Amino acid sequence: MNVIKLLPDVLINQIAAGEVIERPASALKEILENSIDAGATEITVQIMQGGLNLIRVTDNGKGISGIDMPLALARHATSKISAQEDLHKIASLGFRGEALASIGAVSRLLLTSYQSGDKHAWHIQAEGGQVTCPEPTARGVGTTLEVRDLFFNLPARRKFLKTETTEFAHCEEVFRRIALSHAHIAFNLQHNNKTRNHLYAVDTLQRITAVLGKEFSQSAVLVSEQANDISLQGMVALPTYSRSARDLQYFFVNGRYVRDKLISHALREAYRDVLHLDRHPAFVLYLQINPQNVDVNVHPTKAEVRFRDARAIHQFVFHSINKVLASPHRQADSQIP
Ligand code: ADP
Ligand code: MG
């Protein structure tokens, strides 16, 4: 008799969900990234009880056609890559085809979408991994994804979630990261039916101020550096605006928020002479690099990346920041595209 057995799909999806979906904020991140990949210009986020009860994201992106609906919830099914060579030049935020299957395995999910060209909109549900057949419904072009009762079928996991306030704070942080890196998209964030953040489509500098406040941007200097096929744009706070925590550090690689040891080190070094050891710099920086020179397929949540030429990136970041800190007003009139 076999002792090794293939696991049923529902269980496989629940295990995979453990890697990607840790709390409501991680589900929100995946759902928002899907809306962005779908080309949305307006995204509304409605959260109830810190996301423990409901996360609803409504976008005006290109939508999902009726025939694709069941595949959207299937594991390893994606519209974003199709061949091995695509892995080396990923331009979208998603590509693993795992998020919706994972979320659907550990919640009550409702996906409603309409793609122009279809006769009508469709919706499909998943509850603890059991997926229904798509049914016709009504909706304008775009997608609404509702996630209710996250981890309702994994009580051990649900128990680890924190209070409503803490979970919402995590959701807000995810929202800020996404909003900071997509200034051209209008966002609306509601919690328990109250608007918490309403952001118009603007340019990057205006978005930084809208999200992080005037105090930050008035204490910061512009960064705009270019070398070969790398560029670094953004704002770094002067040492006078240093923080006691690392709560205001945003670094994006090709529009994706990342936490990277190498980058952190380069920034710490750049601030070394001007910042006290127990203080932390505040910055919002956007690194653009040829997608072929960075591997984003390192970690399921893609929070880590691997650079092909790590040393060159380190030097570039260090020198760029070091330079503006040394003469903060030199580039005050440069523009972020
Ligand atoms: P991935 O984003 O890695 O492709 P997901 O599980 O997050 O995987 O989504 C599966 C597929 O469902 C996507 O490739 C996309 O085609 C479709 N999809 C998901 N959300 C949306 C959305 N908001 N708008 C349009 N299509 C979507
Ligand atoms: Mg996705």
UniProtKB/TrEMBL annotation:
<comment type="similarity">
    <text>Belongs to the DNA mismatch repair MutL/HexB family.</text>
</comment>
<keyword id="KW-0227">DNA damage</keyword>
<comment type="function">
    <text>This protein is involved in the repair of mismatches in DNA. It is required for dam-dependent methyl-directed DNA mismatch repair. May act as a 'molecular matchmaker', a protein that promotes the formation of a stable complex between two or more DNA-binding proteins in an ATP-dependent manner without itself being part of a final effector complex.</text>
</comment>
<feature type="domain" description="DNA mismatch repair protein S5">
    <location>
        <begin position="208"/>
        <end position="326"/>
    </location>
</feature>
<keyword id="KW-0234">DNA repair</keyword>
<dbReference type="GO" id="GO:0030983">
    <property type="term" value="F:mismatched DNA binding"/>
</dbReference>
<dbReference type="GO" id="GO:0032300">
    <property type="term" value="C:mismatch repair complex"/>
</dbReference>
<dbReference type="GO" id="GO:0016887">
    <property type="term" value="F:ATP hydrolysis activity"/>
</dbReference>
<dbReference type="GO" id="GO:0005524">
    <property type="term" value="F:ATP binding"/>
</dbReference>
<protein>
    <recommendedName>
        <fullName>DNA mismatch repair protein MutL</fullName>
    </recommendedName>
</protein>
<dbReference type="GO" id="GO:0140664">
    <property type="term" value="F:ATP-dependent DNA damage sensor activity"/>
</dbReference>
<dbReference type="GO" id="GO:0006298">
    <property type="term" value="P:mismatch repair"/>
</dbReference>
